[in-house]
Amino acid sequence: MRYIIYGAGAIGGTIGACLFEAGRDVVLIARGAHGRTIADQGLRFGSPGGGWRVLRIPVVAEPGAVQFQADDVVVLSMKSQDTVPALEALAAVAPPTVHIACAQNGVENERAALRRFANVHGMCLRMPGVHLEPGVVQVHQAGHNGICDVGSFPRGSTRVDHAIAADLRAADILSDAREDIMAFKYAKLHLNVTNVLEAAVGASAPDTDLSRRARQEALDVFAAAGQSVSRDPDPRVSSRGAPAAIEGQPHAGHSSFQSLARGGRLESDYLNGEVVLLGRLLGIPTPVNAFLQDLALRLVRARVAAGSLTIEDVIAGRP
């Protein structure tokens, strides 16, 4: 089974690097300076247990440069706002039998993929990956390279899910094939509604009253929608500890923090915006998530430095 990693950033780059080091067949799709640097110099990959190394993983700039095979697994790992154009490019060249695995935050990507491909899988990740400069990816998890469960969308599991999970475990990524992967992804979404606050104020964001209110709104609309949410404590998560340094280099913050630090767009329309959408469909007010969705736009528009605000700044409507 071959893995086509479409979007080789913090998450895709980590998954691709770990699978490649485990001897699996991997091709990266990476655009711009990142892709050019990987092609010219290899992917510089770091982890607490292995330090830094350079991996010569095959890389192309676009799906049209891949000679697709019928049973390829295409791992989507771009931000959710980039999924639809990525799928359009993929559908133009890939056979309809390929497997699409959505290694992304939010719950909309699988629906978008299922419009174009029949074999769609969800991936629920806990992986402190970092990508801030071209050609460089690192993962700050001690003891293993993160968690990545997998299951078929909308439900169930197949031999492909079990094969993917086995390959991830061989790559030192904790993974189980799940019958109800979307229940786990909704549980992750419940946590991700605070991502924009972390981008604004730093690591203290999840402990604020604003974060707690945003998460409660999410749980309220999920319940009203009849959406199953996995709420059982996961011992793999509770035993992970804080992100670990790599040769003295600390973790640089989670996904939205990194996006803001790079000057890119945030995916809040598919995190807070998912809660807002469900609330509007059901007639349930979600003012905190609507506020945070707007905050994401204001942070990018004003080019605010990641982690440079206080919670008081945010509440006061700055920037």
Brief account:
The protein is of the alpha/beta class and 319 residues long. The chain is built from 13 helices and 11 strands.
Give a topology summary.
Layout: E1 2-6, H1 10-21, E2 25-29, H2 32-41, E3 43-47, E4 51-55, E5 59-60, E6 73-76, H3 83-91, E7 99-102, H4 109-114, E8 119-126, E9 129-133, E10 136-139, E11 147-152, H5 159-170, H6 181-192, H7 195-201, H8 209-224, H9 235-238, H10 255-261, H11 272-282, H12 287-301, H13 311-315
Parallel strand pairs: 1-2, 1-6, 2-5, 3-10, 6-7, 7-8
Antiparallel strand pairs: 3-4, 8-11, 9-10
How would you describe this structure to a colleague?
The chain has 319 residues and is an alpha/beta fold. It has two domains: 1-179, Rossmann fold; 183-319, N-(1-d-carboxylethyl)-l-norvaline Dehydrogenase, domain 2 (Orthogonal Bundle). 39% of the residues lie in helices and 17% in strands. It has a seven-stranded mixed sheet with strand order 5-2-1-6-7-8-11. A four-stranded mixed sheet has the order 4-3-10-9. β7, α4 (109-114) and β8 form a beta-alpha-beta unit. α6 packs antiparallel against α8, α7 (195-201) crosses α10 and α8 (209-224) crosses α11 (272-282). The longest helix has 16 residues, at 209-224. It is globular, with a radius of gyration of 19 Å. The model has no long low-confidence stretch (mean pLDDT 95).
